[in-house]
Amino acid sequence: MDLDVFVSAHRAEWDRLDALLRRQRRLNGAEADELVALYQRTATHLSLIQSSAPDPQLVGRLSQLVARARSAVTGARRASWRDAARFLGQGFPAAVYRSRHWWVPTALISTAIAILLGWWIGTHPDVQSTIAAPSQLRELTRPGGEYETYYSSHPAASFAAQVWTNNAEAAAMCLVLGVFLGLPVLYILFENMLNLGVGFGLMSSAGRLDAFLGLVLPHGLLELTAVFVAAGTGLRLGWTLIDPGPRSRHIALAEEGRAAVGMAIGLALVLFVSGAIEGFVTPSGLPTWARIGIGVVAELAFLAYVFVLGGRAARAGETGDLEETERSAFVPTAA
Asked: Which residue has the higher pLDDT, 186 or 256?
């Protein structure tokens, strides 16, 4: 593209659009139609310049012009209960469903790693000695020891809030840091699996694996699923940098990034539920089977929510991204 020729050919349209946007009086019907047409053409011009001859000064000017025109055309829009219902009923579960090819393998591989770490620690006393002194390990694993009292050491409400905050922060980090080729996500994931493997190994070596599972499974099933979803989505976002597919890289990142932000909000709600279970159910006096049963029901409900409701929404075209009218305008680019 010859940028000078392109600018000369379309400057009059941009100036006319700017003039219409600066009008103090209300536009008549013909002027409003003209504004919409000029907005669409200018958005196309911006996309062509960005893909073919990205001059920073011109891109900046046209970006501002397109943003102002978009605001004038669409008007200010406020979030409503309809948006929240659409997000929870379609957007979020569809986004989780669409990323299943990333988070399901992540869950399976991570769980296998945690089990292997637990087996290694539990069957090697020399490894245990590097974690803590024998007296400390006995204090950790004995009946009424630190592993058990951890869940009842604080008031249930404050403990649930603390757990929710920590887990939501970890999930958000997985989603956001995925853009760095997914490497920070792998570190966060391994750290979580190592912590789980240490507890698994130490309690199994003390012959108290049943007590450990009774403490972890009620909240851990849903909590770990949320972490795996966040990690898988973060890895998918990182892979988008490497292979954006038929989309241009910046469009692919914009689409996947917006979906990831929505996922962070949805997963915060999921982790709120797991935090409530950890704060109120895990340390309760309910029988072990009842506590684990509550965790299993919560996990199955979430999976049904994703694979039934989310699958239906995804097949209907829902992606978890913003509605089409709220997205920036782009033109197709050659593969």
From this structure: 186
Residue showing tokens 């757990």: 163
pLDDT tens per residue across span 121-131 = 999 999 999 99
Rounded Cα gap, residues 203 and 72, in angstroms: 63
Rounded CA-CA distance 112/114 in Å is 5
What percent of the chain is predicted at pLDDT more than 90? 32
Provide the residue type at 81 as one letter. W
Q: Write the pLDDT tens digit of every residue in 3-55.
A: 888 888 888 998 988 888 888 677 887 888 888 899 888 888 888 887 777 77
The whole-angstrom separation of Cα 35 and Cα 135 is 77
With both helix axes pointing from N to C terminus, report the angle between 209-242 and 100-122 in degrees, rounded to the nearest 10: 140
**Farthest CA pair distance, the chain:** 84
In contact, 43 and 10? CB cutoff 8 Å = no
CA-CA-CA-CA dihedral for 234, 237, 242, 244, to nearest 10: 160
Residue 37, token pair as written in the block:
């047409």
* 251/257 Cα distance (integer angstroms): 10
pLDDT at 81: 75
Q: Record the pTM.
A: 0.71
What gap in Å lies between CA 217 and CA 202, rounded to an integer? 17
256 Cβ contact list (under 8 Å, min separation 6): 236, 237, 240
Contact 214, 291 (CB under 8 A): yes
Amino acid at 115: I
Q: Which two tokens stand for residue 87?
A: 């997000």
Q: Exposed/middle/buried for 16, CB within 10 Å: 0-12, 13-18, 19+?
A: middle
* Spatial separation of the C-alpha atoms in residues 101 and 104, rounded to whole Å: 6
Residue among 164, 152, 168, 153 at smallest CA distance from 280: 152
In degrees to the nearest 10, what's the CA dihedral of 211, 215, 220, 222? 110
Residue 6, class by beta-carbon neighbours within 10 Å (0-12 exposed, 13-18 middle, 19+ buried)? middle
Task: Record the tokens describing residue 327, joined without a space.
Answer: 């997205």
